[in-house]
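Problem: given the chain below (381 residues), write out its structure.
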Amino acid sequence: MSAQDSTIRARSLGIPFDGITGKFNAITDVAGVEVGHRTIIEGSGKLIKGVGPVRTGVTAILPGGKKFTPVFANWCMLNGNGDMTGTHWITESGFLETPILITNTGSVGIVRDAALEWMDKNHYYSADEDNVWYAYPVTAETYDGILNDINGFHVKKEDTWAALDSAKSGPAVEGNVGGGTGMICHGFKGGIGTASRVIDKKYGAYTVGVLVQTNYGIREQLTIAGVPVGKELADTLPIIFNGIVSNDKLDGVNAETGSIIVIAATDAPLLPHQLKRIAQRVSLGIGKVGGIGGNGSGDIFLAFSTANKDAFNRNTETTVKMYPNDNMGVLFTATIQATEEAIINALIAAKTMTGINDNTVPALPHDAVIRILKKYNRIKE
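Solution.
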């Protein structure tokens, strides 16, 4: 049985969502996109910096597989308490020219550099006639220091290479994997989630796929299918943080100290300014789940299109297709829906985790979620 087969997803619990999904209900439903993970789980008990316990990893997204595949892209942020490297050149050029890596806050540098070395090692770039090439790898982060020895710097270049080398199409693993291994979402165990939507054929039958690394939000704000699940569960399943029992890693509305990274892919022929609009709609999907972009949260989103495959050329004029702006609404809707479901998939897939100093973050309880949704008539008896 594959990892995906053994992972329960939101729809398998009967949680209702709008929209039509792709075959895998994942970012990999956009043809050519590959996803890989390297998960590092080592040790238990008291934190010893540089030793552990370790609960972290790396997630890799390759827009066109393991070959140089520049694609139109753009990005935006909801709240800037976070990091995503390589975005200045994306803004300036309109192209994403590298894989995308997601890891923990303390490992951005080594993952970024390791990605550059991986591209060189694998001849990801074809050097021009002067034998000169350069790249600005895109590496994003969220903070896993509640469960992980984050200042022990346990992510190595080999971990980045493993994530990149293992990237593949098809079903995508979710929950406590890759960069999402040690993450927390709305007071429950979070991590990696993904989903997709296919728009109506009269608008092109294009696909939008989303992958999230969730590490944001407080419990009382968690909303599932329009239901205040977080409030219903506010006094259950406490977090243990340095021996203190709490219903969130910090208490109160100002406790938003995490982050969320969202990558949206589509095969619709969008130009960079249109992809900026797609990235901006990610915020609305997060809002449907209860995210507010709190002061301590790094909410950074990137969107790319795999269409216009011949658009990138250093020397020759090219012709590109552009999707009509008047039809963008269906892609906005698809992005919002896929983001919402990807976040819930991350929560449903994640399992209870104990990390440094026996800090313990509970998984979102499936039975309780079903009971609450039935109470609000979102799932029928």
